Each structure stands twice: as C-alpha cells, then as structure tokens.
C-alpha cells in the first residue's frame, strides 16, 4: 500500500491530510448489507471481495495519489445521499484501457487512465473496507468548486450514464489542491 509520503512525492501539490465524506443519490438500490442474505449471494459477494482485493493490489502497483478520509456525496436526481467517510485515491495507469463506447484504434487504448477510488473507513482514521466510490475520469469529466471546501466531479460511468459526486474537505486548501490535481490529470485522460 502506498504511503502518504510517496503520494506527496508523486503530486506535491496535494496535501496528504485531506478529509471528505461520500454520499449517493436517493432512490438507488439499497446496500447489500440491508438486504436478506442467501448462500448464492454470499458466495458471489465473497468472489467480488476477492476480485476487489486483487484489483486493490493492482491499483497499489499503479501510480497513486493517496489522501486522508474525505466526505463524498453523489446525486442523479437532485437529492444527495451520504455514502460515508474514507480515504480517497487518485489512481493513474497507462496501457490498454478502453472507453465505455469501445476504443477503435491503438491510440485510444494506449492513453493514460485515471480513476478515483474511495473505501469506507472501518474505524476513525482507520483503513478502508468497503468500496464506496470507483469511477474513471475522462477529458469530458467536469470538476467544479461549489464552496471553499466542496468539490463536485461529474463523469461518464461505464454504462454511459452520468453521475455527479460531491466531495467535502476538511480544509479549503485541500479542496483547492484536489481540484487542481484532477484538472491537470483530466487533460491527459482519453475522450469517451
């Protein structure tokens, strides 16, 4: 797992002590934790968790920009729902990445990919457990400052729908640094 020091070295403009929470739009499907469990679902969840662990290991090998817990919210219908608090990572990777619309030439597949991944904290300032945010940034993604401590990120999801996430930071400087970093990275991202 990448340390705060290595993340700060990768992107010195981003403070390693940023804090935020996460939310999700009302009307979305309930979490698996609130639904009754059955053996098939539990087995599928275990396989998903194993896949996430492998994905996490691959992501840790990618160039990362780790930040401390942040509060994040998402909406699709104008209402906000909080998803939780946890560490946020900006993951960068080069290689064969395709757009949701399917890359048709080698240039599209070889461009840099940037993802935002956040896991819910198990304890205050503890490690992340459940993935609550995992999406890709595109050139067409949009980053805006709503206030000095609030940043929204609107992006195209892999099913070609759009989603808006609201990140709340502990300090205004951290929000500003986060926005600046994303704007720089989005210039290097591929188009949808």
Automatic annotation (TrEMBL):
Residues 26-48 have a biased composition (Basic and acidic residues). InterPro entries: PH-like_dom_sf. Signal peptide: none annotated. Residues 1-19 have a biased composition (Low complexity). SUPFAM superfamilies: PH domain-like. Residues 69-78, 93-104 have a biased composition (Polar residues). Residues 1-111 are annotated as: Disordered. This is RanBD1 domain-containing protein.
């Amino acid at each position: 797992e990448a340390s705060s020091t290595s993340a700060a070295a990768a992107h010195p403009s981003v403070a390693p002590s940023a804090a935020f929470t996460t939310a999700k739009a009302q009307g979305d499907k309930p979490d698996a934790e609130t639904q009754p469990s059955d053996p098939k679902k539990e087995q599928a969840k275990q396989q998903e968790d194993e896949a996430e662990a492998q994905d996490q290991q691959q992501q840790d090998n990618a160039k990362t920009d780790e930040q401390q817990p942040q509060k994040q919210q998402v909406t699709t219908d104008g209402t906000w729902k909080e998803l939780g608090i946890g560490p946020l990572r900006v993951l960068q990777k080069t290689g064969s990445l395709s757009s949701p619309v399917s890359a048709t030439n080698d240039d599209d597949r070889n461009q840099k990919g940037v993802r935002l991944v956040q896991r819910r904290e198990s304890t205050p300032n503890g490690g992340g457990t459940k993935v609550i945010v995992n999406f890709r940034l595109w050139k067409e993604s949009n980053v805006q400052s709503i206030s000095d401590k609030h940043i929204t990120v609107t992006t195209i999801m892999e099913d070609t729908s759009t989603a808006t996430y609201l990140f709340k930071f502990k300090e205004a400087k951290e929000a500003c640094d986060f926005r600046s970093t994303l704007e720089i990275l989005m210039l290097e991202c591929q188009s949808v």
